[in-house]
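Handover notes (outgoing to incoming on-call)

Open items:
1. BTB/POZ domain-containing protein At3g50780: sequence verified, structure written out, both below. Nothing else pending on this one.
2. Nothing else urgent.
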Amino acid sequence: MAEIRLTRVEQGQTKIKNVPIAVTPEGFWCCPSPVVFQKTLKSQNTLNKPKPASLPPKIPVEKKSSPVTDRKPALTRSRSAAVSDDDRKGNADTSGFSAPEAVHRVSRPKIENMPRKIAIEFGEPGTSNIKVVLLGKQGFSVKLSVHKNVLMDNSTFFANKLSDQEGSSLEIGDCEDVEIYVETVGLMYCKEMKQWLMKQNVSRVLRILKVAEFLGFKSCMQSCLEYLEAVPWVGDEEEEKVVTSILRLQSEGIGVSPVLKRVSAGVSKPHKDTLSHIIELVLRSNEERGRREMKLVVLRLLRENQSVPSHASSTDICNEIIYSSCRNCLSSLLCLFQQAAETDFTDRSVDRKEPVLKQITLEADNLSWLLEILADRQAADEFAVMWSKHQELAALHAKLPIVSRYHVSCITARLFVGIGKGELLPAKETRKLLLHTWLEPLINDYSWLKHGCGSFDRKVVEEGIGRTILTLPLEDQQSILLTWLGSFLKVGDSCPNLQRAFEVWWRRTFIRPYVEAQGSIHQQDCSITPQLGP
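BTB/POZ domain-containing protein At3g50780 structure tokens:
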């Protein structure tokens, strides 16, 4: 961890606040915590609050006043790298005031009520070759120690500004959102932009997209659009913000149609062998209590690993091991389903059937655990692809008794919950195939899941299914929800309640086009009205 040196410059004293910050191998911060800016603004707003009016103090003119310098501490030069020359001159000229001058000073606004200038410096100056100064409208500035080649390679704005510039400093004034400017510049150093964006909410990504557009940061804009295309939008207000922001980009030559189709029809390196062996031991254990406890332990330890900075290669190796285990479990589960679906299976003795049914439960539980690990690591997209393509497994699902198969539907439910929460962001085709392949089997097992599975949260699952459906283009939303409506009207409470998703689709289909048409007519009327005057 390196430090942010936050220097608040006041007349008469300088305060320095050190805040921890993550640093990349290049020696630069990567997306600092917004808390620095929030605390800065909160502190500034508190200082700028108007105080209750009070009577001015009586200052007898005939009495000689003490010099101003006697009442103020000396400026500490060794700790104030951000103090300007004007501040130094102001402090040097404060001695030798006469009484009338002191009276004149009392009539001026107090220092506490004056706007504060705050300078925040990020990065490691030793490795940088240029400084970018952002001047915010909130009354503070941010000085970034950065690298010229990184800025020019990623941003057309910086490429144009710095190509012919010989100096080592660039100033950008009147920044409306300094915090997001800083994060967007930091993303130029970030190699896993998608994973970073997954930790943000829609509102923040829209702010980043706006700044990236201004800076001409094309790769960031594309990543933001991919995020917005896959993540669920919560509420009508958030949906409107996304659509409005995306429509503004249509003239930029950026592919925005995948996002608009939703509402419009037109990173220490682990030992590979050891980790693989541990996971295999847990998966193949036949002792229920030990297996359950060790799954919790391994999941917790892998979560701790996520909080420690690591190389991208080590993360890839771990994910590769987990996906290898997923493929083995899926292959085993398919073979078990094929055995259980044989016509003579029900006629077999209990001693011959029980091991197969028990192994089905075990493999389904193993897959649920592996999916949980991948979701924690923000790497479950490929699992959704694998699961959506298992049409044969889904076809065999209906041939097994519910008591033997419902554990498999728990995997489907977890995927829908993950997509609904934005924990995984599979492609549109994958989300569509997942719904077409596995929604019907889930509906068939729904009554059993509600009453026979203690960990099943009906409301969470229903919200996840609904949000997953609403991430698709409008035509696909209609097809899936009308099929669901037929099932819901037949079996009622034994079917997932997707009424909230149905209402959103209804408004998008029947109300939104009318509102847009009315807005278009209103705009035409406004453009014609001036021409009808005398």
